[in-house]
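Researcher: Re-running this chain for the archive, since the previous output was lost when a drive failed. Same request as before.
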Amino acid sequence: MAGVARSTVGSGALVVWGASPEDTRVYVDGVRVPRLYHDGGLRSVVHSDLVKSVEVAPGGYGASYGRGLGGLVTVALDPL
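Model: Regenerated structure tokens:
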């Protein structure tokens, strides 16, 4: 994805728009999650069969999403 960089191997961190991983906000169906991946970065906290869409927005998003400086990653789940 454009604007997303590789993190260190095994960390599972997201580096968006050159900011530190702590400055990237991740939301799953409107709920903030601290990490999108478990330790090791091999497994997501949400199974891929349940994901409807993933959107990445650059920094400068609305204040309702907090005070992060990096990007905003929103994951929408597909209702079963």
